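Provenance

Sequences were taken from public entries as deposited. Structures were produced by running a predictor on each sequence independently, with no templates supplied. The record for Tetratricopeptide repeat protein from Dactylosporangium maewongense is shown for reference.
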Amino acid sequence: MVNIARAHQEAGDDEPAYRDAGAAVTILRETGDRAAEASALNALGVAALRLGRPTEAADRHRDALALAVEIGSPFSQARAHTGLGDAHEATADPATAAHHWRQALAAYGDLDAPEAQRVRDRLDRPAAGSTPAATSAEQSKSMAVREGPT
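Predicted structure for Tetratricopeptide repeat protein:
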């Protein structure tokens, strides 16, 4: 279901993406697949941000980060930090956004992940005129490829 949510995100269908990511979180909690749950929480955060709900997005990415730390998933941790940065940027908190993006960049760099360049781009752009929802869509597309089916 997470990949279905991401496919909706790629197509710009944000409401179905949000719905499917939320359903995936529920199912994965019931089945106990904690790694996939962290991935679904991150997808839900991306969808919430694209729907203009940055506070909710930050909450979902925080949930994903806590779970990813608990299970030792550096990729999900990096993704959560990226989403937290995007959510804080959307709420006009560039210092906190940059903090999370630096955390994501360090993790992606350790993993030699191509997402590191996208995070560098976020850190390099001026705070005004940025588009976290658009960059979240790019992230969703990349994550679907890297995380595989869930």
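The CA atoms of residues 26 and 37 lie 8 Å apart.
Helices lie at 2-10, 14-31, 34-50, 54-71, 74-90, 94-111, 115-124, 132-147.
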